Amino acid sequence: MQLLSCDFEDDYSLIGIHSTEEDYRLAYLINKHLKTKFNRFKHPLDFKDSDAEFPLFEYKDEANFMNYYLINNKHIQYVNNTETGGLFGGNYTSTSYLIPEKKKIDFFLKIEGGDHENYIQEIIGNLKSISQIITSYSVELTTLKSKDHLIF
Questions:
Q1: Could you give the C-alpha distances from 112 to 20, 22, 93, 128, 152, in angstroms and in order?
Q2: Model confidence over 57-68: pLDDT tens digits?
Q3: What is the C-alpha to C-alpha distance for residues 105 and 16, in angstroms, rounded to an integer?
Q4: Contacts of residue 81, Cβ cutoff 8 Å, sequence gap at least 6
Q5: 76: which of 6, 13, 20, 101 lies 20 to 30 Å off by Cα?
Q6: In this model, does residue 7 exceed pLDDT 50?
């Protein structure tokens, strides 16, 4: 009897983006420079054990059978603390990360479909030409411990 083996290899690429822009503004800039059509997804990414929500922008390139997702890596929650007494009273912020081991990355660009190593390098070059983007680079998926957060 022959055994079948299933190899669930990641069939997407991931680009890390450093930028101080708001997510909607970054999506607009990428649309303008890369000729994409990112739209805000109806529902943000959220998880059962967390209050954090991560905005998600989507672009489906049906001609090339590729899907693009722009995902914010940071969720800043403002906590209104009604207790004003003591040293630690008052309001504060709490930051959650989609991929905690990559805290310095502001956004991820997930690209699904196709064999596109050279294409990824071309996209990275185009992203670097946007003045509001500090830098962008390919993220090696094998280095991510929480890459299951990118499955949606």
A1: 25, 24, 34, 21, 11
A2: 999 988 888 899
A3: 6
A4: 89, 90, 91, 92
A5: 13
A6: no
